[in-house]
Amino acid sequence: MSNENKGADKQNEIRAKLIQKLIPYVRKSGFQSLRMEEIAKMMDVSRATLYKYFPSKEEIIGCIVNFYVDHIKELIGDSLDADQKFGNRFQELFEQSVLVYEYITDVFLEELESSYPESYDRLREALKLREHQILTFLDEGMGEGVFNEINGKLFILQDELLQNMLDVKYLMVNNLTINQVLFDFYKLKKLQLFKPEKLQSVDDSRMMSKMEYMAQKITKNLYKNH
To answer: Under a CB-based contact definition with an 8 Å cutoff, are residues 123 and 104 in contact?
Structure first.
């Protein structure tokens, strides 16, 4: 690898790390009111260093969208292996949905649509591709007699409830933990999707460690800056 390529890779790596420091704030509060000096503080760098890696706020938002789009494409590529059991595939999709809706919030999407419509369209297109893949999976399960006959669009739409449930105020008012919310929602989706005689194909023990990991990750983001 040439020195030029090594330098580019190093710069991209640093940019990615800086972006991930900003994402917890952006997912909760949006980005329209942010100024570059505030962004520099959140990234824990000087303004000069910030401008070295990101010449403009538009560049920063573009990198956040790239991060999301790349992540969604990875999810699409990693899931729905035809050789997997339906139970395992359902669990993978549930885990992905939690992470997608944890990061891509309504406040971020609304500001992105009004300020950067091209980036918004790119992100929505990636989300639509994932939705199409999930619908294909649901149709397959119904065709095999594993899933109940349900409206796939409504089944996917339910995942948006995660944003409302994984909210500090909601959790406090209802005396709930993030772990409890995740597991109860998981059970709700599972019972809704699988026919009663097929429920034994879903091994819930596989999800326990994953649920704990997701809860820890969400807690860290949720209570940051509180």
So the answer is: yes
